[in-house]
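#random but structural
TW: two for the price of one
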Amino acid sequence: MFSRIVSCYDLLNRVLSFGCDRLWRARLAKAARPGSTGRILDLAAGTLDVALALRARYPDIIVPAVDFCLPMLHKGCSKLLRNNQERILPIAGDATCLPLSDASVDSLTMAFGIRNIRNRHAAFAEMLRVLAPGGLACILEFGSSRERIWGGMYNFYLACLIPGLGKLISGDNGAYGYLARTIRDFPTAADLEEELRNAGFARTRFERIFSGIVCLHIAEKARY
């Protein structure tokens, strides 16, 4: 499905978020913390916008950028050429079985990807494995429509406007209906925080952005 919408993916991110996706990704990059490994992992890297935001904020780091959808990474590689970004390393891979060594990254980021992973427990276990002690998992995700946000306007936008706008611009009948469904079915921010704690993260917290339309989760691996 993601392969079908590669050509208009970035445009739709801008349009459907009213341009706020760039601000959200910059905030995600700011939450990450570089350290002794010199690497920050970006999961569900897509067309590499978060990887570029990480490099802009931390010029000395290396960013392994992992995504399951190879055409998305191919699209992002054109941005790397334009920006001379040799320290971003696109990798086709599965977040539940990462091709990285234990304790090999200082932090990791994931923007709008965790809701697409059915086995979140396996993904969280892999995050803990590849993070160095004290490392941070920084996860940006849409708020669940199980919560009433902006008097229900958010739910209306998800259910009625996103599928229609997505179909109009992309020409794809199903992709943006899928987006709305995954947001609707996703756990609340408090429930996701509990999942992270149950997975073994030592400390967890989350920040609501735009009244909870987007939530930034930060989970820390124990230092010992």
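TW: number two ↓
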Amino acid sequence: MNFPFTLRDGREYDVAGFGTNSVDFLIRVPEYPAFNTKVELTDYVQAAGGEIATTMVGLQRLGLSTCYAGRFGDDGAGEFGMESLRAEGVDVSFAEVVRGAQTQIAFILVDERSGERTVLWKRDKKLSYTAEKAPIDIVDRSNVLHITPHDPDACISLAKRAKEVGTLVSVDLDNIFGRLDDLLPLVDILIASSELPKRMFGIDDRNESLKALQERYGSAVVGITVGENGSLLLCGGRFIETAGFEVPGGCKDTTGAGDSFRTGLLYGLIKGESIEESARTANAVAALKCRAVGARTSLPTSSELKEMLKK
């Protein structure tokens, strides 16, 4: 099945990202600690992350053109985060540094037995965008706008502009945010975390919860990621269930796996692949990401992805 979209010619960027960036402190532990105990950690690393920033890096590594619009604090973490995007070739001319603000950070506990993680995060309110400050220019210059709805007013402004100029809107939805009823009807591709549709509609059956999501908001493609089991998409009345890939060498860390899935799905869309092949690509990118600790550490190159897809 083909995606029910037409991409515009002559756009400067394949994908523009608006939303979260983060500097992550990843702490590997032998097992997740019980309450009121002490556990010696195995090791820890500082690495760049954040949903949208990670997806832009993933697409850039695969050879697409991307830009990132988001805010950093004027601190050491902000310098680290901004440079991590520049080094990958992501255009950061739309990114901003906010004086007196702290860059978003996360402390992430990674259970080394399985690679599963628990995230503790903090985002400074000074990093938020209003509708009036939304970076509208990125919409006209891109084929796809990929967002997280942390700043809903700004996202709605961008998504409305996207409808006017024929830019597709993709959303990374992992929680319930304000003004979703205003934003989601403007979204073309809506990929949520596995349990979110159930939380939104109270429906246990995954297929039925996805149907409810699509019927409520009208996105042409809706879907969920289901970890090592792969993904489930719904488009044109058809459910597309795609198995996950085994992580080469075993799963070291699932941080950013969902962001990586979205990387692969958007890559397939831009390259003109079918929805089925794009979902398979998305699951391959997510598996390759899990080879190492950190959201972006082992995001694949195009050659690595091709080798994975041959399996």
